[in-house]
Specification:
The chain has 201 residues and is of the alpha+beta class. Helix content is 42%, strand content 26%. It is built from 6 helices and 9 strands. It has a 5-stranded antiparallel β-sheet, with helices on one face. Strands 1-2-3-4 form a 4-stranded antiparallel β-sheet, covered by helices on one side. A hairpin with a 3-residue loop joins strand 6 (67-72) and strand 7. Helix 4 crosses helix 5. The two termini are 24 Å apart.
Length: 201
């Protein structure tokens, strides 16, 4: 059994690897020793969430994030929260050396790949802005629009936004574009690096 205890705010209180199973949880500090003792004797504790090796797909460490990402089952994900970078790296290295039938890879994102999502958000937001602004100006000049159908379309949303008026539309989308622009700047300035342990089936 290997265990990591923490009293740091934001961390998981207890992370354990025992009998090819990863456990995590936030029990009361005074209960930790009893929980570890029970686990060592094969007694499961409800305070801990468990991920057996049979369901494990991969563990990712993204540099700069305060947690490890554990993927398991069909499409499930759990975070092992460890704020200290050295401790987080040590836990990842332990999994890398211990988990059977696994392979290690590291991916350095290019600036183009790192900025793809915020750039797409900026393009879509810009198109919606131009569309909404056009309709807002038309409505201010007396145009009237009628929605045909059940009203559950993007047109309904755009018309609702346009109804706020051209000034409010401009202010709203300026804020959204600013957020997307800042995200694009930081993601391309420091492209992420992801270390991955993948279980080979």
């Amino acid at each position: 059994m290997n265990s990591w205890k923490s009293h740091v705010k934001g961390d998981d209180t207890l992370i354990v690897y025992h009998n090819t199973t990863i456990y995590k949880g936030n029990p009361k500090p005074e209960a930790v020793d009893a929980i570890l003792r029970d686990l060592s004797h094969g007694v499961q504790r409800p305070e801990l969430f468990s991920i057996p090796q049979s369901l494990l797909k991969k563990i990712c460490l993204e540099e700069g994030k305060s947690y490890l990402e554990v993927y398991f089952g069909d499409a499930s994900e759990e975070h092992l929260k460890v704020t200290d970078p050295a401790r987080r790296q040590a836990i990842f290295d332990f999994f890398r050396a211990t988990i059977p039938r696994s392979k290690y890879e590291v991916e350095h994102y290019s600036k183009a790949k790192a900025g793809r999502k915020p750039l797409a958000a900026m393009v879509i937001t810009s198109l919606l802005f131009l569309w909404s602004l056009y309709l807002a100006v038309q409505m201010e000049n007396g145009a009237r629009y009628e929605i045909i159908g059940d009203g559950k379309s993007i047109v309904t949303v755009v018309l609702a936004i346009a109804g706020l008026g051209s000034l409010n539309v401009t202010l709203l989308f300026s804020a959204l574009l600013l957020i997307a622009g800042v995200s694009f700047y930081f993601k391309t300035r420091n492209p992420k690096v992801v270390h991955t342990i993948s279980v080979v089936r």
